[in-house]
Amino acid sequence: MRLLAALIALLITFPAWADCPLDLGRGTGIVIFSSHYLIAFRPEPLRIEVGEPFSLLFNVCTKNDKPAELVAIDAQMPEHKHGMNYRPTIVSLGDGRYRVDGMVFHMPGTWELAIDVRAGEESERLSHELVVK
Amino acid sequence: MALAASAVAQTPLQWSEDEVRAIARHGPWPPTAPRDPSNRVAGSANAIVLGEHLFNEPRLSADGAMSCATCHVAGRDWGDGRAKAVGRAELDRRTPSLWNVGLAHWFGWDGAGDSLWSQSIRPILDPREMAGDAGRVAGLLREDKALACGYERAFGHKPGGDDEKLLVDAAKALAAFQATLISPRTPFDAFRDAVVAGDREAMARYPLAAQRGLKIFIDAKCSACHFGPRLTNGEFGDVGIPFFTRPGEVDSGRLDGLGKLANSTFNLLGKYNDDASGASALRTRHVQRLHSNFGEFRVPSLRQSGSGPFMHNGHLATLEDVVKHYSEVNPERLHSDAIPLVRPLALSADQSADLVAFLRTLSADVPSRPAPPLLCP
């Protein structure tokens, strides 16, 4: 409910985001945003298992409805300051949608995703913490 | 008095919800064994029999004196009990156990192999070990009547004329056999299942010293690396073991292993991968070579770990030495600028004994292995 309320508030504030499709299928996902970008993503498979490869499906939108690009993605464990042993690849699916393959969280704990996005000359890093058990 | 003491001794420790979750993650055991899609004969009964015969076959080696079983001895937990492996020369690393090797995704202490079959080729060709070659292996499969018959049963056709392909097929049969080496259930598994079921009577049968040791194992976050049912995450770490092999020479571990992986004809990106989907090569495609890989070695499973020596180079003789190492490890050696994954646990003598008691419950007696069935009776 709180997520829904936040999204409604966002859409009122930035009407262009109303055109940003947040449905990535299977009825679930994570939404993060900054003053310029709105990003929806979900893992595939939905449950991330320690040591098992997974993908991320992304939809990247901008406040002013300019085309946005997912430039890079990485992850690290903030507690131990080490990253992944694997380098993910990004495939554009068109219309701001992306698929990221080759993610592996090889330890249980908190992982911080670093998501680099760009719209024209404007780039930004958004982050989100995921806990795997 | 004796009755009271016994009753007290059989009361299991209290476990928090987080501890129960942590214990549950180390099972159930045995797991459902996955079938390797990169090996078209994985799980085939005929290939497993052929693989066991090849495993014990000294004619795969250059001088006919050494087989896989020379170092991977069934009665020694599929290792050799030596600090460092001995082939035609002494090597720099310990012979790893083959228990549960079919559940791994990287092979060798440095992870230079990305499949069990590609890893099985390495010691056959290594001049310091069996010093064999593709022609020798192929000739044996073509010319030895029993092996040729076993090959035909396993692969559905007679051995062909391509030596390298026959070497790979021999390795795939070897892998099919090795993937059957699943370690037995242990006292820990009975305790783990009892904890999950909330069966305090069954929990009480697990020694108290082992229970205390398990609490230390959980509190110390050993399962960050020794994760899951196999008690390894299958990846790599530097835990402060010296990596000098001799004056002026180092074993760079994973860093070198990744270089070998990339250059291998037999990696999963190559033509011998039987998985047309390419999914089995995902880790190989995405793994990255980092400076931090220097001095990292594969995190070993703690199941059926044998009586030692331990660590990638046999540096520690006993389980007590291993616990002492983690109790006293020098954090300066690990160069961490964050919360280090390995830090000195500063255990008391009693705590060290408890941790050893827990680690011993991850092993069980194994019945002696019968001779393999005939290839073509």
UniProtKB/TrEMBL annotation, chain A:
Organism of derivation: Reyranella soli
Cited InterPro entries: YtkA-like_dom
Protein name in the entry: YtkA-like domain-containing protein
Keywords: Signal
YtkA-like domain boundaries: 49-115
Cleavable signal peptide: 1-18
One Pfam family, short name: YtkA
